[in-house]
Here is the input.
Amino acid sequence: MKILVATEKPFAKVAIDGIREVAEKAGMELALLEKYTQKEQLLEAVADADALIVRSDIVDAEVLDAAAKLKIVVRAGAGFDNLDLPACTAHNVVAMNTPGQNSNAVAELALGLMVYAVRNFYNGTSGTELAGKTLGIHAFGNVGRRVARIAKGFGMNVIAYDAYCPDEVMVAEGVTPVHSVDELYSQAQVISLHIPATPETKQSINHDLLAKMPKGALLVNTARKEVIHEDGLIQLMQERTDFRYITDIMPASDIKMKELFEGRYFSTPKKMGAQTAEANINAGIAAANQIVDYLKNGNERFRLNK
Ligand code: 3PG
Here is the structure.
């Protein structure tokens, strides 16, 4: 049995060592396709793979067509918008993710980006503090919860909205639940996005919603670029010179936004929320273990395509 790790954005070496150990202990072979630049390289590499570990790499019908022996694909991470689940089902491939394994890294980055923004990108001028400000967490999943804990350490007042999370879960974390996005955005000076990219959420963070944020607003995106309505955001930032946007996922209009909004817009060159040795080890090894447990014991606990 062969496990292929195909990562355009590679794992730390220690994570690969850990994945290899899991594979070898189970009597499986490990193959690596890292930093690939062409889809053809992936199509070639999957040809003889029984199992596939990816990060944000796209696994669509074309990839699955090229992977005649594939039984399981695991997205080493949380968001699985890069996996075509109906196509996986049609190809008899089990699809899984590794929820929670890289959340702490993303949460730490979200707070890091907030500090960077309110201290004027460390340009030497006088900024503001996070303490005493209201942080609105949009979606209270694994990352949102960790962001809440760290933000409380900073002395922030934390509120959250999540249509699927009971109030008691938020209250137990010392977080005030609100019951609509309008309420969240109109009360929070800082919003941290933790929603997945789904047909419902795509472009849902739009001009009218963002316009509700109070003066000195800061929007932090460590989730997905697709959830932002980019034209609406640009329009709002043109109307409101107090509005700042800081993102770990470079938008399509990155160059234009850099020109238009110098000093209140920042994007990382590559999504780096989960780029820590710890997150790579946690998510990568979890993925390898899930593959072995599925192939040897039929464990489908983290299966996404039913
Ligand atoms: C996730 O959904 O797990 C995060 O966005 C991290 O994605 P990455 O593995 O592409 O860094």
Remarks:
- Residues 9, 55-56, 77-79, 102, 271, 273-274 surround 3-phosphoglyceric acid (CB under 6 Å).
